[in-house]
Design brief:
- It contains 4 helices and 10 strands, in the order αββαββββαββαββ.
- The protein is of the alpha+beta class.
- The chain has 2 domains: about 30 residues; about 160 residues, no CATH class.
- Strands 3, 4, 5, 6, 8, 9 and 10 form a 7-stranded antiparallel sheet that branches. A 3-stranded antiparallel sheet has the order 1-2-7.
- About 20% of the residues are buried.
Amino acid sequence: MNILSFMRRRLRTVTIVVVLTCLILSTSARAEKAGLTDIVVTNTMDHLLVYFSVTDCFTEDVVKAIENGFNTTFTFFIKLYEVRGLWLDKEIADFKVKHDIQYDNLKRVYNVRLSERDNKLISVKNFDEAKTLMSEIVGLEVCELHRLRKGSRYKVSMMAELDKIRLPLHLHYVFFFLSLWDFETDWYTMDFKY
């Protein structure tokens, strides 16, 4: 009798582990890889500008976290180099830009802060509009044109990541699975000649 009950418990445990493993693997297989699209490097009379968008960054879990009021931050990294052939490329600019979003359940608005716009609060009622604000870099000034040399080759590299969602108090010990919400794009590079 003891051996039979031991075997049943062992079989139940193995079945649960197999089912959970299959669920985790199928969820990660369905997840799309976030990436950058619509990359444009251009200039005004005085500045080099960059435009781009992040795709597939709003997973179901990220949307649920935002709608539950958790502060969520996207960080964008932008680097500008002068390409120097046989020498190491010379770094001209290296900075990061942050986009924060938090849903206000009382007012039923999404509060977005963009560091490139002096962190001014932008409140929108429409989640699609908030997603657009969060996932797009529009006309970001990379550097002043007088820092570039005519006829030289340059490259702008950029990437985006979702910062870990920070929970209040010690809830992060309970909800350890939140690390599954992290994403990071690959580095994307645009070459150009000035």
